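fwd from M.: "can u put these together and see what the complex looks like"

so here's what she sent:
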Amino acid sequence: MHDSTKHNPPATGWLSLICRVLLGGLFIFAGILKLGKPQGFADAIMGFKMFDVDAHSHIIVTLTYVIPWTEIVAGTFLVLGLWARASAAVIVSMLTAFIVGVISVIVRGIDTKCSCFGELEWPCTGGVGWCQVVRNCVMIAMAIPVFFYGGGSLAVGKRSAE
Amino acid sequence: MLTHLGRFTTIALVGIIAGVTHSALHAPLKLKPDAPPPFVPPTPSDASKSQDGSQPAAQPEAVALGLDITLEQAKMLVDAGAHVVDARAREEFEAGHIDNAFWLPANLFYEGKAQDALNFMDPSRRIVIYCGGGACDASHNTAKMLQENGFKLTHVLTDGYPAWAAAKYPTATGKPFYEN
């Protein structure tokens, strides 16, 4: 992995900054929207039909809060540029899990809503579909510069070899 | 110094601990709508007495209708004066809905916009909720939200609007009646 503290040209530093602030900000925003309407997000999780409501209600309730909180924590670390690579890895892991979930819904022909951004589904309107897969891939792409160049400019963790 | 894996784990653990703590402190979520009490078919006023007019007719027996009901049961409830609620997307509603249906997808409750329709609804009446049928969850989500708002007598037409329309029962198009 590229050592962000020694050889980063200014352009890559600013690219990392823009990507991490945008991606981290999106995750903080998404987490806050979900925590604002936990019932709506719980309904969305159940809509994916990955857990039996009777047998695994505790998993559904736990995920309803753990997913948005993890988004907020990882997003905050990323925006600050503190442990930027690790927080980007957390976000990429979540996005990958979301993509798997969305594709499984598409394959099973389930008609449900994503609630990825609470009730705001921009730019994907309607039910779960390929638009959400593309949107998540775009967000994964935004994490790549952070992986390669670390937190970049104005990162809190820059001095600690990120 | 923590490794990248250690940092990854730390960030994930902070999120998990915060989420688990929040879920323990928050009011319980409603994952399933409750089953309504048995339905007693109304007695027509002109049949409330026996033929000689001296004895009241026998009370009809209560019918145990579950949360999920068939097309025939939904038709019986609608004929007996039940409210009808459409839980689908707006464009689907406007393209065709059960006659006199309210438009109430669950997201209207989440967004605090359900009151426009609830003002026209009587909590003491049965409510038949439907969506697109099949694997559609929207009607169960709306049932939960209606119950949270004091409308306990909710039923879900399992086969949804396609079955109602195929049976050629009364339908309408356009905006909800209370928005005109």
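replying to her w this: The interface with chain A takes residues 1, 4, 7-8, 10-12, 14-16, 18-20, 22-23, 26, 28-32, 89, 106-107, 110-111, 132, 134-137, 141, 144-145 of chain B (CB under 8 Å).
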